[in-house]
Amino acid sequence: MNNFNFYSPTLFVFGKERENEAGKLVKRFGGTKVLIHFGGGSVIKSGLLDRVKQSLTAEDISFVELGGVMPNPRSGLVYTGIEICKREKIDFVLAVGGGSVIDSSKAIALGALYDGDFWDFYQGKAMTKALPVATILTISAAGSEGSGNSVITHENGMLKRGCGGDALRPVFSVLNPELTCTLPAYQTACGATDMIAHVMERYFTNTQEVEITDRLCEGILLTIIKEAPKALVNPADYDARANLMWAGMVAHNDVCGVGREQDWSTHGLEHELSAFYDVAHGAGLAVMFPAWMKYVMNHDVMRFAQMAVRVWGCEMDFQQPEKTALQGIYKLEQFLISIGMPVRFSGLGAKAEDIPTLVKTLFSSGAATLGNFVKLNADDARKIYELAV
Amino acid sequence: MNNFNFYSPTLFVFGKERENEAGKLVKRFGGTKVLIHFGGGSVIKSGLLDRVKQSLTAEDISFVELGGVMPNPRSGLVYTGIEICKREKIDFVLAVGGGSVIDSSKAIALGALYDGDFWDFYQGKAMTKALPVATILTISAAGSEGSGNSVITHENGMLKRGCGGDALRPVFSVLNPELTCTLPAYQTACGATDMIAHVMERYFTNTQEVEITDRLCEGILLTIIKEAPKALVNPADYDARANLMWAGMVAHNDVCGVGREQDWSTHGLEHELSAFYDVAHGAGLAVMFPAWMKYVMNHDVMRFAQMAVRVWGCEMDFQQPEKTALQGIYKLEQFLISIGMPVRFSGLGAKAEDIPTLVKTLFSSGAATLGNFVKLNADDARKIYELAV
Predict the structure, then answer these.
(1) Measured between alpha carbons, how far is B192 from A240 in angstroms, rounded to an integer?
(2) Under 8 Å CB-to-CB from A164, ≥6 apart: which residues?
């Protein structure tokens, strides 16, 4: 096991109707003037935004609203948000929505205390401070409610890039599973896939002897595999939604990923797809992960066999463990199909002839390789995209 | 799943030689005058205490030392520590040791900012504040390094009582598995048993549909069952020690216990044993848990069967699930024996004739019942003690 620091100071406020505590929570964490950041009509139509505003008003906290965050959140709205924060002397950013809204909020919070271009941080600049961010989560997926990470797409070149640091950990996150009961099936499935991917990026590692985090990862995967179909069959199944919501948090606050090298090349491969075609991140991951797995499997067949046995219930083939490993990948694919996810380029509207462009953009930052489990060069990336066609 | 708050703001600093960062960490969290609290000779002999002091001195942080914490830490030293803190204007308590040292440090930190008797908090008074506490952990067991809990034995009546609150969460905890490599086998096994017990107190619940926390609990148990024997066979096995150390933290910071009713009656039953006979807490738990399980098993046979199958690898008996459930308890007992733990009163030097006294003290606070999974009255407690004879 490697040395590590683990710091997850977010206060998680979980359960029914907890969003009504937003005002008290903002006050507790020192907010006096809030930017409420959100996406489209659903938080308005559902009445959630009104409840949050009432809760702030009840505590005499003033606020400015900024809606309009789109999936794969863009830099344009971030610049607008930063400008508002500086002009209005905002001291607290409250994200009401899913991963895109939270990531956009984090970017605004970073930029609000920085004189330069916020994009610097997404190009590798180390962060030192940001406005406090809090979240009221409406979809179990990105894990951004408990992580110090943010992913933004810059409209200049459609570059999708991430950054991370403790300053971006939300001070509190309200997780009310009820808010996710009205999600369409496709978004629910995309969210589940995103969580699975967050765990698998950590699972495939070259670090040896990491049983505790292996087991935590496997436990999270087993939960998602059991609960996601229940939420699809009965969208109002509170307990299924609740299990998914806590699974999504622990999948990405890194409690299951510390002390081990992590991979993250599949997220890199996917980011090009969602930036280029504007498809859902989860759907892109459903397409790219099986392809990546098939390509790198022989690097450590036993690790793939372990997941196949422990998570997918495969019988171990002690003579030919690679058969077990492959069976696990096959079962993952079948699961993704069963929850309505695409597993090939065609399901995303992606095209084989775009692969050279995808590869080129992927390596445009100048890095020679991608990922850690297997370090992929541009030729590897091309072959993995081709496996996904 | 029940509503809950989860707040674990401790910075965990994990890995080889990390104790040398103690001074920088104390400074980061605002400490200027530190009470270093520790136990007996081992932290002195090993040179750990000297390294910690050097690290503080290097940052110009002054300190006062208070050693002498014994297992099942007593109120007497807590009163001494509180007096020192008040007299010397201490603003930070640094625990160097295991659960007993940490629990004693938390009690001192509470009392240092309170005009009354610190014991009030162990008799149910709600806490509001404490001095910041940090830990340098030397044994994987109590999980006190990541929890907001403390257990102290009051010398007036030998009452062993616990208290908890966010103010007691350590601001940082240094977890260096190397420091545990010199632990005697018996202490290693007691620590592993304590961790198992922390998970099982959470696992046996009446809350339905808690798959995510069930799976996290099971993953932690599977890890301890695999890694503890490795640490016993080869005490210097760093990776086994590292896996146990992180398992011990996640077993008790409550990430695996939120949203579900927890039991904790076995800890209550055990506290009487360790207070009365001054035996190791882990050893007492090894004796009491199987007895409690046999007594309450029929309350929810399927929950016991689930643990038997998922954790102990038992084959499910679909006709007679109670056989599977019993087999799981049997396997737990066999495991405890295999790591050198007692599983009967005789192994602790406890006597059947003391049972009436144990039961009387257990219910001396006036509570009518103990625990939640099954609410135990005094007669139930007596029968469980008798099962352990």
Answers:
(1) 32
(2) A147, A148, A149, A150
For the entire predicted model, the pTM comes to: 0.96
What are the residues of chain B with a beta carbon less than 8 Å away from any beta carbon of chain A? 1-16, 18, 177, 208-213, 215-216, 218-220, 222-223, 226-227, 238-240, 242-243, 246-247, 250, 255, 258-259
Which chain A residue is nearest to residue B245, measuring alpha carbons?
A: A212
Q: What is the DSSP letter of B13?
A: E
Choose, out of B17, B199, B212, the residue to mutate when testing the contact with A (most A CBs < 10 Å): B212
Per residue of chain B (389 residues), what is the pLDDT tens digit?
999 999 999 999 999 999 999 999 999 999 999 999 999 889 999 999 999 999 999 999 999 999 999 998 999 999 999 999 999 999 999 999 999 999 999 999 999 999 999 999 999 999 999 999 999 999 999 999 999 999 999 999 888 899 999 999 999 999 999 999 999 999 999 999 999 999 999 999 999 999 999 999 999 999 999 999 999 999 999 999 999 999 999 999 999 999 999 999 999 999 999 989 999 999 999 999 999 999 999 999 999 999 999 999 999 999 999 999 999 999 999 999 999 999 999 999 999 999 999 999 999 888 899 999 999 999 999 999 999 99
Instruction: At B159, give phi and psi (nearest 5°).
Output: -85, 125
CA angle B291/B296/B300 to nearest 5° reads: 135
Q: Which of A360-366's residues contact partners 24+ apart within 8 Å by CB, and which partners?
A: A361/A157, A361/A158, A361/A159, A361/A272, A361/A275, A361/A276, A362/A268, A362/A269, A362/A272, A364/A157, A364/A159, A365/A123, A365/A161
User: In whole angstroms, how far apart are CA A217 and each of B10, B200, B225, B313?
Assistant: 22, 20, 17, 19
Chain A contact residues (CB < 8 Å to B):
1-16, 18, 177, 208-213, 215-216, 218-220, 222-223, 226-227, 238-240, 242-243, 246-247, 250, 255, 258-259
Task: Answer yes or no: do A11 and B16 touch at CB < 8 A.
Answer: no
Q: Which of A293, A296, A324 is nearest to A311 (CA)?
A: A324
Chain B residue nearest residue A243, CA to CA: B212
Which chain A residue lies closest to B220 (C-alpha atoms)? A212
DSSP string, A10-75: EEEEESTTGGGGHHHHHHHTT-SEEEEEE-SSHHHHTSHHHHHHHHHHTTT-EEEEE--PPSS-BH
Residue ranges of the alpha helices (H) in A61-118?
A: 75-88, 99-112
The tokens for B280 are: 């190791």
Task: Verify whether the Cβ–Cβ distance A223 to B210 is below 8 Å.
Answer: no
Nearest-by-Cβ selection for B14 from A222, A240, A259: A259
Domains, chain A, in order of start with CATH, read: 11-179 (3.40.50.1970), 183-387 (1.20.1090.10)
- CB-based contacts of B146: which residues, under 8 Å, 6+ apart? B8, B10, B12, B169, B170, B173, B249, B250, B252, B253
- The dihedral over CA atoms of A112, A90, A42, A227, expressed in degrees to the nearest 10, equals 70
Q: How far is B93 from chain A (nearest CA, A)?
A: 20
**In sequence order, which residues have a C-beta less than 8 Å from that of residue B47 and are 6 or more positions away?**
none
Measure in Å the smallest separation between the Cα of B17 and chain A Cα atoms: 9
Nearest C-alpha of chain B: how many angstroms from A367?
30
Looking at beta carbons, which residues of chain A come within 8 Å of B12?
4-7
Distance of CA B166 to the CA centre of its chain: 16
User: What are the residues facing A149 on neighbouring strands?
Assistant: A164
Q: Are B216 and A185 in contact (CB under 8 A)?
A: no
Separation CA B71–CA B218 (nearest Å): 29
Scanning every residue of chain B, which has its alpha carbon at the shortest distance from the alpha carbon of A227?
A: B211
- Contact partners, residue A353, CB within 8 Å, separation at least 6: none
Please answer yes or no on whether B4 and A15 come within 8 Å at the CB atom.
Answer: yes
Q: Do A16 and B7 touch (CB under 8 A)?
A: no
